[in-house]
Each structure stands twice: as structure tokens, then as C-alpha cells.
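Researcher: Next entry in the queue.
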Amino acid sequence: MFVALRNLQTVWASDNELTGSIPEFIGNWSKLKSLRFQGNSFGGSIPTTFSNLTLMEDLILRNNNISGSIPSNIGDYQRFLQL
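Model: Structure for this entry, 83 residues:
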């Protein structure tokens, strides 16, 4: 169901105790400008599909259990206002 939400521009899901990995399908939300996952229990790494989010301006993944490296192309995101 969430996979088909390609026109989303803002997703804020904070303090919900969401667990598991951050879903790969978020990288298909090509119009996403703001993603905030704060105070959840996501684990693992940032999905490589996030490289598709070329309109992203605001990415906040604070207070989770994310591990691994930051995607190497993060510097190419010219629209970032906040990371």
C-alpha cells in the first residue's frame, strides 16, 4: 500500500517506536522533499534507494538505531536545507 504513494512530499513519523529497517520503497517516492524519522527504533543502514530522492530538502533520522555508512552520493543532493 505505501509503495504506491509516489506523490508524497512530506513524511513525518516520530516517536512511534517503528522498528526494523527503513523501507527500501521510500526511495521510490520521487517527489519527497521532507522525511523525518525521529525517536523510533529503526535499525540497519540508510537504504541505497534514497539516491533516487533528488528533490529531498530535509532529512532527519535522529534518535534511531541506524548503522552503516552514509550514502556516498549525499553530497550531490543540491537541495538539502537540513540533514
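Model: The radius of gyration is 12 Å.
Researcher: Noted, moving on.
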